[in-house]
Structure formats: structure tokens, C-alpha cells
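Section 5: illustrative case.
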């Protein structure tokens, strides 16, 4: 098992189809798109940067023979989920796997941060995956086959001073995923929350963070994507990719919440 905290009774898809991956132009999203393509899936890749998406589509088509649809879109827009759903539907594409990967973080004392960036963070990390899941899940349930893979974070397991909104949004996504997974336990539709630790991606730069002290990252985008894909295919509900992060999770369950808050404050204040 891949750091599972409970598994669905029936794994999601048993045959390959089309996976929709948000935030596919870089980092974990790009690695997840590659992982799905390497395992025989066609793809819909979504992000703002069309040139990066097209380069990815060309690469995956050449390397794995995948059909890759490119949808350039700013997912921070309020109606992005509905617009994306309608665009994909108009192209005649059935989505068998929904990968909610795109996300944002805002670093700093909450009362000093930019309000619009905080609201964009809620849109990308909470509202968008909730909306997309609600749009795509009925079709999966009707077909009695499908996968939802939500990229949460180890941040979901505790409060995070100086990244307050980010930690809270990832906790929402984790609990949302676990609850729906349980609702669907007696179906062939699975919901998986992927909870990686720190990774060297563009996320830190966009959030206004420096790298972790000493450049210490728990995993690579490729390792996280591989673990997330395996877990989703197995119908696991929660996937923690790194052994180090699994240990961190177990220790956090034992520590008083006040101690966890102070530890997170020290770590995040130094970035």
C-alpha cells in the first residue's frame, strides 16, 4: 500500500480512458499527466500557459501515443469550472479520471497579505475542485466507473501559521475527498487524496516562499505522481508518498496541537 489511510471497496477504473489534469504545465501536474500517459491514458491538460501545454501534448503523443487535448484557461476565474466542463463536453470527451491538481499558496502574516491573492487561493484550492468534482462525479456514478484524484498536502494535517489559508484549504480538500470516498464505497468510483510533503516546484516562488531550510524536500514531482497514480488505481483514499512524511504524519498525530502550531510557525516564518 502507498501510505493508505483507508481504501475503497472497489478500485476506480479497470480500463484506460481519458484523464483531465488541471495545472498540468509544471510540477506535480506535469508529472501526473506523464504518469497517466505512460500507463495508456489519453489526456485533457489544463493550465494558463498554452505553449507549455502544447509542448507537453506533443511530447506525450510522441513518447506514449496518447491523444492529448490542450485547454488553455485561467482556472482562478470564478466560472472556470463550468467553462472547462462545457469546453471538454463540447469536444465530445468523456472524462474517466479527474485530477484536481492546480493550486496556490500565499505566504506571510495573514493580515498583511493581499486579499485578492487569498481569494484566488480559495478559488483554486477549494472552489474549483469541489465544482469540477460535482460536475463530473454524476457521470462516473452512472457508468459505475471512475477516479477522482485530489492533490492535497501534508499541510492538511495541521494548522500552518504564515500559510494559514493554504493549510486550511488543503485540510478542506482532504476531508472532502475522504467523505466522498466513503459515500462511494459500494461503487466502482474511487476518490483519492494525494498528500505530498515539500517538493522543489514553482509553487514556492509563486507563494513568496524560500526553499525549506537546507533545501530539504521530501520527494520529487515524479515520485509523488507515481505514488499518486498507483494509489488512485488501487482505490486508496489517502496517499502519503514519502516514508519520511508518513513518519511525520504519525508523529503529528501524537503531538499536542499547540506544539504542532508552534513548530509550523517556526518552519514557515523562516521561509
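Designed sequence:
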Amino acid at each position: 500500500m502507498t501510505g493508505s489511510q483507508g481504501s475503497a471497496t472497489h478500485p476506480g477504473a479497470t480500463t484506460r480512458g481519458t484523464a483531465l489534469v488541471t495545472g498540468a504545465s509544471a510540477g506535480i501536474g506535469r508529472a501526473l499527466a506523464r504518469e497517466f500517459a505512460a500507463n495508456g491514458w489519453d489526456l485533457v491538460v489544463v493550465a494558463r500557459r498554452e505553449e507549455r501545454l502544447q509542448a507537453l501534448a506533443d511530447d506525450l503523443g510522441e513518447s506514449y501515443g496518447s491523444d492529448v487535448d490542450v485547454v488553455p484557461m485561467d482556472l482562478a476565474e470564478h466560472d472556470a469550472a463550468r467553462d472547462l466542463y462545457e469546453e471538454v463536453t463540447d469536444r465530445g470527451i468523456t472524462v474517466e479520471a479527474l485530477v484536481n491538481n492546480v493550486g496556490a499558496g500565499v505566504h506571510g502574516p495573514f493580515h498583511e497579505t493581499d486579499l485578492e491573492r487569498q481569494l484566488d487561493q480559495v478559488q483554486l484550492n477549494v472552489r474549483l475542485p469541489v465544482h469540477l468534482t460535482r460536475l463530473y462525479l454524476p457521470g462516473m456514478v452512472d457508468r459505475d466507473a471512475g477516479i477522482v484524484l485530489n492533490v492535497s498536502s501534508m499541510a492538511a494535517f495541521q494548522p500552518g501559521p504564515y500559510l494559514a489559508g493554504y493549510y486550511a484549504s488543503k485540510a478542506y480538500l482532504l476531508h472532502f475527498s475522504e467523505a466522498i470516498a466513503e459515500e462511494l464505497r459500494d461503487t466502482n468510483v474511487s476518490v483519492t487524496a494525494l498528500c505530498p510533503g515539500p517538493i522543489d516546484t514553482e509553487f514556492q516562488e509563486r507563494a513568496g516562499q524560500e526553499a525549506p531550510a537546507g533545501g530539504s524536500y521530501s520527494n520529487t514531482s515524479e515520485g509523488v505522481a507515481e505514488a499518486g497514480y498507483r494509489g488512485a488505481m488501487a482505490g486508496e483514499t489517502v496517499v502519503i508518498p514519502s516514508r519520511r512524511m508518513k513518519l511525520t504524519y504519525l508523529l503529528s498525530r501524537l503531538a499536542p496541537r499547540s506544539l504542532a502550531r508552534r513548530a509550523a510557525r517556526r518552519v514557515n516564518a523562516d521561509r
